[in-house]
Structures are given as structure tokens and as C-alpha cells.
Amino acid sequence: MRVLVVGGGPAGLTAALHAAELGAEVTLVERHRVGGTALSRGPAPVRALARAARLARDWESWPAFGLTGPRPEIDVGAALANADRVARYAYEGKRLADHLQAGAVSLAENTGDLRFVGTHTIAADDGRTWSADRIILAIGGRPGRLDVPGAELAITYEDARAITRIPTSACIVGTSDTGCQLASILHGFGCQVTLIGAAPRLLPRADHAISVGLASAFTARGMTVVTGASVDQLDARPGGMQVGLSLRDGTPRVVDVERTITAVGWPGNADLVDAAAAGVVTDRGYVVVDEHLQSSAPHIFACGDVDGNSMLVSSAVHEGRVAAENAVRGPTRGVTHEVVPVGSFTDPEYGMVGLTEEQARQRYPCEVAVARYDDLLRPIADGRPNGFCKLIIDTQERRIVGAHVLGEYSAEVIQVAATSMAAGMRIEAVAEMEFAFPTFAEGISQAAQMLVRRLGKRPMPVTWSRRPASGTG
User: Fold this and answer.
1) Given a cut of 70, is residue 8 above it in pLDDT?
2) pLDDT value, residue 50
3) What does R_g of the chain's alpha carbons equal in angstroms?
């Protein structure tokens, strides 16, 4: 069987290698170089910029640790060069192209734009064509753009990496994960940031405690956070631009900034390859798929961002395996995204997995516990006591159905909760685990012990760390 994989990001790479492992004759075509947004322009290089901003922030805590010295200066060119180094590492250091070819995958990179010219055939602008019995679309998405007068004055987060100097002020439009990460990085580099979103709160899909805690931290650090507002227009001004807003009550407001960066959605790329010409039903650029990742054209499957399901690298990799298996062996394996941990690059970081408290209470009888980081030794030792770990359990099954973490190392801490959920551990088993000391991950243990005490299923003493600090009563 011949399988054609279109798109070389995490989903496409995985799909191609897995299909070849299953015995198919596989070709992977990619309009740029393999790696995709995640490795070349997204999380990997952005994480490097976030690290630079975090190091600059840490200077503020030096005196508490007995350190002295001048505030570090930001070399934007060097910071961006380091981000490019990270992007190149995935491609060159890991030798992705060689890895594919060693896995018996025929690779065509830098093809330029691709489009369907038949139900089984994809063509490049230079006239080359590729045909197969089964096609897997892993073509990702692209940054959304504002649809208002003057929208061309704004740049997207992908364009932001081309900035050669940090603006003195910037407006970030969009308060979901990407917008909050951009705002945090720019503020860490010394930019005066205004963060604007149409939703009533930051991170509208997150647990309410995470949204409130992050907004409070951003405001305390000097950012301006405007929620429940829509952008009406952008106008050029000497040295920058003016952003016109409408607040929730209709009140107009203007913000004068040097730069505006948008993070307003991630439409799929199905329209760019004219998927409809192959009989594929799409919706806003996303391929409409069933539980087997099969499109309306039975021989065409889709995985990763282009199906609009779970736009995370880990989910893309999982979907790539499922799509390959269903394409080669027949559509029998379903895909679900139940335990998918999410970690951020904001300052402070946040992590989440499973249901929010609001969602959980609609489905289960629940109990909730919150372990505060100022009750743990490691956050105190590191000078980062602001944060928490929140666990939500179904009281009938006594299993974690949601976990939400705000503070240092959240992207790592949340993995502990996700693993416990995937293993189906009851909360008393989590409470009995012996965690390394002192760590931020002990927040999971603390919250679990609190829940076991409340349920009364097993004797559980109040740990020493939960005792009031000296002088607090």
C-alpha cells in the first residue's frame, strides 16, 4: 500500500514513520523543511526566549540570596540567535531528514505550496506530483489575524521573532495561552505590555483559579490586563500606533503603543491545499474527521492541528500514530484526548490536566483541595512562594479528574498528576507516595493528603508543613 503524508510537523513525522513500520510504502512531502511550527517556529524556540526573560527576571531576587551586580542587559540579536539554535537543533542535531530516510520514508522537502489536483494526487507549484492509495493530511494551521481596519499594522506571534529590538510598549491581542506567553516574555525583556482579550478573563478555558492567579500576577508585575474588550481598529501614529477598543459596556478606549502583536486563533490549513477538490469536507480550514481521524473522503485521514481537536504537540504525535494505523490497517482505532497535560511558558508558569472545577462539578460529586506553595519548603527556599497546586477528585471513585498548578516548574509538576490519572490511582495511593524533598511537586502530595483527610477513608495526620508559620497564630 502506498501512503502519502502531507506535512512534516510532529503529527506528519510520526504518521510517516509509523506507516512505514506497518509495512506501507511511504512518501512525506513538506512545503518547508520537516519539523513544523512546533520545532521550528513555535514551542521549542519560544521556550528559549522565555528562558532568557526568566533569567532577566531572576536578577530582581539576587539581594535576597546575597548576590550583587548590575541588571543584565538584553541583547535581542543574541537571544533570537539562541532561539534559532534551538530550532535548528531539532532539524540538524537530531537529523530529522536522515531519520526519516533510515525509516524507509521517501522525503520531499521545500516543495513550496501544495494542492490537490485529484482525489489521490497532490501537486507542487513546480509541477511535481505525488499519488497514493491513502493520504494523511498533517498540514497544521496558521496564526489568525484581526478583521478590523488597520489590521495590517499588527504582526502575529510568528512575525514577532523577526523583531530586531524590544519595543518600549506593545499591545498583545488575545488572552489564551499564546497571548499570555508573548506578554510574559516581552514584559520580562523590559517592554511595557497591555494584554487585551475579548473573553471575560485570561485563559478562558482554564480553571478559574489559574485565570485569576495569573491575572493577579501579571498586574502585580506592572502589566495592563484588559478583558471583555474587542479591538475595533488600528491607526498608525508617529513612532507606533493607536489601538481602538470597545469595552464590555460599550465604552470606547484607546491604547497608544509602539507594536501590536496578535494571538487570535489558529485556523487550519486545509483550505490552502484545496482539500475540497478531493471531496474533503472542511470547516474554517479544519478537516472534519470522525473518531478514527477519517475524513469525508474515505482514503484521506487528518491528524494534528488541521483536524481542530487538540492542538498540542503530544496530541499531534498520538494522532499521527492513530492516523497511520487506520490508514494502513483500516479505520478501527479511535482517538480520545482525556489525560493531556498542558504546560505554559508564562511567568509564573501554569500547568493543567483534565477537567476544570466547574466542568467536574457538572459531571461528578467532587471534592477539591488546594496546596499553597508558601506551605512548602522548596518554593520558600527558591524565593518563589506564590503559587498553588489544586486537585479535583470524583468522591465516588476517589480518583483525580482535574489538576491545576500555578507557579515555578508547573509544566513539570503537572506531569505527576497526569501520570496518576492515566494510571487510575485512587487519591489515597497518591497521598501515600514518597515524593522527593524539597520539591515543588510536593504540592501534589499535600493536596492529596488533604483530600484523604476530608474523605475519612484512611487516617492521615496534618503534616508539619501545614502548621502555621511562626508568628501567624
Assistant:
1) yes
2) 83
3) 24
pLDDT at 466 over 60: no
To which residue does cell 493520504 refer?
135
**b/e per residue 156-192 (b: at least 16 CB within 10 A):** bbeebeeeeebbebbbbbbbbbbbbbbbbbbbbbebb
Look at the block and give the residue holding cell 495592563: 224
> Cβ(12)–Cβ(138) under 8 Å?
yes
Beta strands in 114-168 (DSSP E): 114-116, 121-124, 129-131, 134-137, 155-156
Q: How far is CA 314 from CA 103, 141, 340, in A?
A: 21, 16, 8
Question: Which of 34, 35, 19 is CA-nearest to residue 322?
Answer: 19
CB 460 within 8 A of CB 396: no
Amino acid 165: pLDDT: 83
Q: How far is CA 249 from the centre of its chain?
A: 31
Question: Rounded CA gap, 372 and 393, in Å?
Answer: 18
Query: For position 89, what pLDDT does the model report?
Result: 72
156 in helix, strand or coil? strand
Torsion on CA atoms 52, 155, 171, 251, rounded to nearest 10: -160
Residue 391: name the closest of 455, 437, 472 by CA. Answer: 455
What would the pLDDT profile of 187-197 be if each residue is shown by its tens digit? 998 899 999 99
| 177-188 vs 208-220: helix crossing angle, rounded to 10 | 20
Q: Which residue has the cell 532561539?
A: 83
In this prediction, residue 87 carries a pLDDT of 72
Range list of H helices, 62-171: 76-88, 96-102, 157-160
**Calpha distance 431→367 (Å, rounded):** 15
